[in-house]
Design a protein that fits this description.
The chain has 19 helices and no strands. The protein is mostly helical and 412 residues long. It folds into 3 domains: 206 residues, no CATH class; 81 residues, Cytochrome Bc1 Complex, Chain D, domain 2; 84 residues, Cytochrome Bc1 Complex, Chain D, domain 2, CATH 1.10.760. The radius of gyration is 25 Å and the shape is elongated. The chain starts with 13 loop residues before the first helix and ends with a helix. The N terminus is likely disordered.
């Protein structure tokens, strides 16, 4: 039995920018190793920092709050950590004027705070939108759910879905559907029905419809905290995902690199993608001796948070191109960096050789950000344009400065 199709729903002087690198010290090597990005266990924790640093005085979040500056969220903050960092850096001139006019101090950020803040802004898309019960009714009918399931009227071929009413999070509903998958798919095959396929927003709408239709209502609804991407990496390995997609989800012989998949979506949207992929993946997993994974507690949320943050980690930069950026952006006019020191640089800014600020992407961004007011004054004093940077520029500059720091370090 095939459910009818449903309608489609609307669903810089850049060198001056680097003056801060010398200010963070000149001890130790900072050779780039991997992305160097340490994610916070609670990506929503940055909302407290967002308010404490005064960001909320100018920026709304996902359509809520003040909007003197750009409203953040809803797709505005996608890309890797350093790509987001570049967006912040390029916004410094306009933002600093607002701070000056309002008489507000420039908000300084430590390395960990920079990670926490950018992770929070990136994570907004994960939260998705509230479900719409009327749209969920359409999903319920179009996907053939009503053929097997009742809501508050006793069990049919499948269990009564009123029990899902206690799950306030669509991810809990997604987890229940996933865990029930093998038995449900086998029953649907016997009945000649097509397996359900979910689009973005479907699971949120379906959860809203089930809650609306369930009689009585639960005394206490089960909320699901945002996933921990660090625990999600462990779940990825424990559930056998790494057997096909590789230890760090970067792809295997027979499975794609998940960091290249469009996963900057809502959590339930990623869960829907997993389900749709599972319809094909099930047979392949059986061939590889991998059982259908069952998730408990927050495991699915943790796994999805891990997948969500895969594109957030920057790939290593090219130190040779970083040297070109350093030279072409007039960095050497003010700074000396390792092998460039012999070129007669004026060293108006700190020497960058041996700096540890490039040890991580967050250290680099925090150093640049905290010294932005001083750099803006210096740049304007030289009548130079503000040095805009792309994420690739920052990756390459970090690689170059890391190489210089390693070369300047004393031998062990």
């Amino acid at each position: 039995m095939t459910a009818p199709p449903r309608s489609v729903r609307a669903a810089a002087a850049a060198a001056l920018a680097l003056a801060a690198l010398g200010a963070l010290g000149a001890t130790g090597a900072a050779a780039q190793a991997g992305s160097g990005l340490e994610l916070p266990p609670d990506p929503l924790g940055g909302r407290v920092l967002f308010a404490a640093k005064g960001c909320a005085q100018c920026h709304g979040i996902a359509g809520r709050g003040r909007s003197i500056g750009p409203n953040l969220g809803e797709g505005h903050f996608s890309g890797s950590f350093l790509e987001l960092g570049a967006s912040l850096w390029n916004h410094v001139p306009g933002m600093s004027v607002t701070f000056d006019v309002a008489g507000l101090p420039w908000p300084e950020l430590e390395e960990g705070e920079m990670t926490e803040l950018l992770a929070f802004l990136y994570f907004i898309e994960y939260l998705g939108r509230p479900g719409v019960a009327a749209a969920g009714q359409e999903v319920f009918a179009d996907q053939g759910c009503a053929f097997c399931h009742e809501i508050g009227a006793g069990e049919g071929i499948g269990p009564d879905l009123a029990g899902l009413e206690r799950f306030a999070s669509p991810l809990y509903v997604a987890q229940e559907i996933w865990n029930h998958g093998p038995r449900m798919l086998a029953s649907m095959r016997e009945l000649g029905m097509r397996a359900p396929s979910f689009a973005e927003g479907d699971l949120a709408d379906l959860a809203a419809y089930v809650r609306q239709q369930a009689e009585g209502g639960a005394q206490e609804r089960l909320l699901l905290a945002p996933g921990d991407p660090n625990r999600g990496h462990e779940v990825f390995a424990a559930k056998g995902c790494s057997k096909c997609h590789g230890r760090d989800a970067r792809g295997g012989e027979d499975a794609p690199d998940l960091s290249q998949v469009d996963l900057h979506r809502s959590a339930e949207g990623i869960a829907a993608t997993m389900w749709n992929h599972g319809l094909v993946m099930g047979d392949f997993m059986r061939e590889r001796g991998v059982g259908w994974p069952i998730f408990e507690d927050s495991e699915l949320a943790d796994l999805i948070a891990y997948l969500f943050f895969l594109p957030f980690a920057d790939l290593p930069g090219d130190p040779a191109r970083g040297a070109e950026v350093f030279a072409s952006r007039s960095c050497a006019d003010c700074h000396a960096a390792g092998e460039l020191a012999a070129g007669g640089a004026a060293e108006k800014g700190p020497r960058l050789a041996g700096s540890t600020a490039a040890a991580s992407p967050a250290a680099l961004m925090a150093a640049m950000w905290n010294h932005a007011p001083m750099m803006k004054t210096a740049i304007l004093g030289e009548a130079l344009p503000w040095p805009e940077l792309a994420g690739a520029d920052l990756r390459d500059l970090r690689a170059f400065l890391g190489r210089q720091a390693a070369a300047a370090a004393p031998p062990p």
